[in-house]
Amino acid sequence: MQVIQELPEVFEAFAEQRQKSFLTVKEYKDKGIPVIGSYCTYFPQEIAMAMGAASVSLCSTSDETLQEAEKDLPKNLCPLIKSSYGFAKTEKCPYFYFSDVVVGETTCDGKKKMYELMSEFKDVFLLQLPQTQTEEAALSYRKEIIRFKEYLEKKFSVKITDAQVREAVHRNNEIRLAIRNLYAVMKNDPCPISGYDLFKVLYGSTFRLDRSAIAAEMDALR
Q1: Is the pLDDT of residue 113 over 90?
Q2: How far is it, in rounded angstroms, from Cα 10 to Cα 221?
Q3: Could you tell me if residue 77 is inside a domain?
């Protein structure tokens, strides 16, 4: 298999998705569609999708806002956390600005502190993640997912049904399968595309507010 020198235009479309969605997220807000922001893949995206909300990854991509973040956070704190907080505080991340709620998670002490400070200027739902792989931990996490569902229902005056959740899970599983199949292409020797080009596709897909076409578009890349 030969290395592809000129990639199809759809690769660039994925790569440019973050910038393109800046305008899209405002259009969603103008239509009254809720926007749920998150930083971590532990976020139960399907619950937000089930209520018809747009789910989007938030900015933490550069050191541009570190200096502003360090006015509130220790300088020796994780740069990822400082970047996330800095983009939020300075409103330089349009996705954060338009988010109705940000879903945080207890992955580390630094993030817990970040979300504590962030809650002073943005609605934050903090998802308590289990720290062990036990049956009790699984039950605890299930309760957290239900708590998140009930929070959204109350905040947005909606009802999230089991059928809606199943449909959202099915849609996201199709995307996960498409991503796995795309990974499999990289097993060829030589790899048909660079790891950087693959990353641009995967990273860009996290900023797609309409997720209905992602699986088919990724399948087309193969």
Answers
A1: yes
A2: 8
A3: no
- 149 close to 47: Cβ distance less than 8 angstroms: yes
- For the cut 60, the answer to whether the pLDDT of residue 119 exceeds it is yes
Q: Which residues, other chains included, contact 139 with Cβ-Cβ below 8 Å and sequence gap of 6+?
A: none
Asked whether residue 7 carries a pLDDT value surpassing 50, the answer given is no
pTM of the model: 0.83
Burial class (CB in 10 A: 0-12, 13-18, 19+), 18: buried
Provide mean pLDDT across the span 86-96: 91
Residue 203 lies inside a defined structural domain of this protein: yes
Whether 183 maps to a domain, the answer reads yes
Stretch 209-215: mean pLDDT, rounded?
Answer: 82
Give the structural domain span for 204.
Answer: 9-58+93-221
Task: Kindly state whether residue 67 falls inside one of the protein's structural domains.
Answer: no
Mean pLDDT over 137-164 rounds to 97
Residue for token pair 């969605």: 21
Q: Give the count of domains, the chain.
A: 1
5 or 81: whose pLDDT is higher? 81
Q: Look up the CATH number of the domain holding residue 146.
A: 3.40.50.11890
- Please give the distance of CA 171 from its chain centroid, rounded to a whole number: 15
C-alpha R_g of the chain: 19
| Cβ-contact 42, 105 below 8 angstroms | yes
